[in-house]
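Inverse folding, one chain.
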């Protein structure tokens, strides 16, 4: 009987031990295109300026991440490209709008209930903190642990803030925090895809040099149409920075499962004792 008592006592302690499991954090690394074997060097990314330091320190504090976890990028104002491919996202350009696709790799993620967290130093999201006449948006795609060969990732939200599994906070005077529920993940490497867009509208231009806002906007459009891709008539983009991480919490085995395992262990101990006798 004492073996049953020991087994029962052990079973009662196991659920509390399972509940004591701690959250695991893995920071994302930007890939060259969607090549899981090629990560973007931080030295190739935009260099933060003095005006960026306060915001970057804020996201490092909020995310518990360091300098190596900061991802810097430009959202093109002209055309579309994949981050890291042909220096895409590394240098500034001029234009009226473009898009950037970025793949993030999270290595050795632990199994459990997972949440992806993003801390942006400056992202002018529609409806959050966008300047007049200039907006950016980001679409998140969860590949559900699929291979980088997956071309049609599952969309989580068309625009951040519109999906039930995505939350967004922030305004013009605060850093932006974004959280996405990934559900239950298996252990291993996981990928997330982000699509950024930028758009400059007439309202962004202010009257200058005898031209109205509309005249300056149309001048930019005309120059771009003529192939002047570096024209000073169009606005130049600025670098942006963020830190991404996946947090997983192990799923505890139900108390009944622990008691079953403990009971089986007690029966095995009794059997061994009878054989020894």
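Residues assigned per position:
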């Amino acid at each position: 009987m004492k073996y049953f008592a020991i087994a029962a006592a052990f079973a009662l302690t196991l659920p509390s031990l399972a509940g004591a499991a701690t959250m695991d954090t893995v920071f994302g690394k930007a890939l060259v295109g969607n090549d899981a074997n090629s990560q973007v060097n931080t030295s190739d990314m935009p260099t933060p300026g003095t005006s960026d330091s306060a915001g970057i320190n804020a996201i490092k504090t909020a995310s518990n991440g360091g300098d190596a976890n900061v991802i810097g990028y430009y959202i093109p104002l002209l055309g579309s490209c994949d981050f890291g491919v042909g220096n895409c996202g590394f240098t500034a350009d001029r234009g009226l709008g473009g898009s950037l696709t970025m793949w993030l790799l999270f290595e050795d993620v632990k199994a459990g209930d997972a949440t992806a967290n993003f801390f942006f130093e400056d992202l002018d999201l529609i409806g959050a903190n966008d300047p007049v006449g200039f907006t950016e948006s980001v679409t998140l795609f969860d590949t559900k642990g699929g291979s980088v060969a997956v071309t049609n990732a599952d969309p989580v939200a068309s625009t951040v803030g519109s999906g039930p599994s995505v939350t967004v906070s922030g305004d013009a005077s605060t850093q932006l925090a974004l959280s996405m529920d990934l559900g239950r993940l298996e252990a291993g490497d996981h990928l997330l895809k982000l699509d950024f867009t930028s758009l400059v509208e007439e309202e962004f231009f202010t009257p200058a040099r005898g031209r109205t806002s509309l005249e300056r906007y149309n001048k930019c459009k005309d120059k771009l149409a003529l192939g002047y891709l570096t024209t000073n008539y169009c606005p130049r983009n600025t670098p942006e920075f963020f830190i991404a991480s996946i947090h997983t919490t192990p799923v505890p085995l139900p108390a009944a499962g622990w008691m079953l395992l403990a009971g089986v262990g007690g029966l095995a101990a009794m059997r061994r004792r009878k054989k020894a006798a």
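Residues 42 and 68 are 7 Å apart (CA to CA). The chain has four helices and 13 strands.
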